Amino acid sequence: MKIVSTNLAKPAFVTINGEQQRTGIFKKPTHQPIYLDKEEVKGDEISNRKVHGGIYKACYLFSADHYPHWQNLYPHLDWQYGMLGENITVEGLDETQLYVGDVYKVGNALIQVTQPREPCTTFAAKMGSLDILEQFIAHCKPGTYTRVLKEGNVTVGDTFKLVEQLEQSITVSQLFKLLFDREKNQEHLRLAIENTALPEKKRKELKRFLK
């Protein structure tokens, strides 16, 4: 996996149910290194800290490989990296091969894979279509949030080196399906609930579905 773009947002607004809401989803390429802090990417707008930022969502990665799919569905939009709201656009990121709890060295930072991105109304407002919520779930390639175990700079061209992997885990893709499938895979549920790379709140939510 390799970084092809680093992206930051300035404060912007979207209209949801007739009300303007401040957002940091309009990220654009920076053409310079970005600094990964323990709870955020330095200099990036985070408007709603209840659902963005924090220890388990400090940085969001999305795959450059998935861009053609969305460009084909929404050709009228002005496409550039950062369009899916990611801080880091990564070539070769594959959610079916990325495991929750994986620790990677990238640039000067050390990061840990935590949880997939869940689509929201702010994302739909930015893209101009409520249809994208179901499309995003169906595509099952959501990118991933990460913890920052060691702060540091990352930049375009940096590659990801796997340094630690849990013996018992599930992929980001499998976790994403757990969040949205009506019939939830019980073995995957057990693995997720025991995975401390996930925040305790998320594990408690999933525990309700154990049979």
Concise synopsis of the structure shown:
The protein has 211 residues and is an alpha+beta fold. Helices cover 23% and strands 28% of the residues. Helix 5 packs antiparallel against helix 6 (200-207).
Would you give an account of this structure?
With 211 residues, this protein is of the alpha+beta class. It has one domain (2-167): M1 Pyruvate Kinase, Domain 3 (Beta Barrel), CATH 2.40.33.20. The chain has helices at 67-73, 121-127, 131-139, 172-180, 186-193, 200-207; strands at 2-9, 12-16, 19-23, 27-29, 34-36, 59-63, 88-91, 103-106, 109-116, 144-150, 152-154, 161-164. Strands 4-1-7-6-10-9-8-12 form an 8-stranded mixed β-sheet. Strands 2-3 form a two-stranded antiparallel sheet. The chain has a two-stranded antiparallel sheet with strand order 5-11. Strand 2 (12-16) and strand 3 (19-23) form a beta hairpin.
Keywords:
211 residues, alpha+beta, M1 Pyruvate Kinase, Domain 3, eight-stranded mixed sheet, two-stranded antiparallel sheet, 12 strands
Write the layout of secondary structure elements.
Blueprint: E1 2-9, E2 12-16, E3 19-23, E4 27-29, E5 34-36, E6 59-63, H1 67-73, E7 88-91, E8 103-106, E9 109-116, H2 121-127, H3 131-139, E10 144-150, E11 152-154, E12 161-164, H4 172-180, H5 186-193, H6 200-207
Parallel strand pairs: 6-7
Antiparallel strand pairs: 1-4, 1-7, 2-3, 5-11, 6-10, 8-9, 8-12, 9-10
Helix pairs in contact: 5-6
The low-confidence runs, each spanning 5 or more residues with pLDDT under 50, are none
Rg: 16 Å
User: At the fourth CATH level, what is the homologous superfamily?
Assistant: PK beta-barrel domain-like
Number of domains: 1
As laid out across the biggest beta sheet, the strand order is 4-1-7-6-10-9-8-12
CATH topological fold name: M1 Pyruvate Kinase, Domain 3
Mean pLDDT: 93
Helix and strand composition category: alpha+beta
Can you identify the CATH class?
Answer: Mainly Beta
Please provide the count of β strands: 12
Architecture per CATH nomenclature, i.e. the level-2 architecture = Beta Barrel
Biggest sheet descriptor? 8 strands, mixed
